[in-house]
Amino acid sequence: MLKKISSIVYKMVRMIRLDNKFVYKDKSKYYLTDIISVTKWRKMSDDKRKECKGKDVTAKVKRYLKLYKTSGNINIKTIPSKKKLKTVKKKKNKKKVVEGG
């Protein structure tokens, strides 16, 4: 007996982010949104994403996509991070000399 399994087909959408904000692609134009959460972005419909579009960043995104030549998801950082990096110095192991026996 064969069972028919219903499957949900997900549209594979390339996720492009610019300084942690998602970029919405409308035809050949790219628009910056205020969305930073991946789960929120994935749950949004295409119509909701279209409502969130803001500043046109087509030139900047096309320049970076051409520079990095990637076909997967990408997060382009253009603003330096404000996080301070700490370097941990390794402590020198002092060997104890035991005299006697």
Structural domain count: 1
| Sequence of secondary-structure elements | EEEHHHE
| End-to-end Cα distance | 81 Å
Quick one: overall form?
elongated
* Secondary structure tally, helices: 3
Assign a percent range to the helix content. 10-25%
| Unreliable parts | 6-10
What percentage of amino acids are in beta strands?
15-25%
Q: Please give the order of strands in the largest beta sheet.
A: 3-2-1-4
| Total E-strand runs | 4
Biggest sheet, open or closed, and with what strands and sense? 4 strands, mixed
Gyration radius over CA: 24 Å
What average pLDDT do the residues reach?
Answer: 81
Structural class: alpha+beta
Q: What characteristics describe this protein?
A:
101 residues, alpha+beta, four-stranded mixed β-sheet, 4 strands, elongated
Q: In a nutshell, what does this entry contain?
A:
By secondary structure, the protein is of the alpha+beta class. Helix content is about 25%, strand content about 15%.
Task: Walk me through this protein's architecture.
Helix content is 24%, strand content 16%. The model is unreliable at 6-10 (pLDDT under 50). The protein has one domain (10-101). It is built from three helices and four strands, in the order E-E-E-H-H-H-E. The relative contact order is 0.18. With 101 residues, it is α+β, with helices and mostly antiparallel strands.
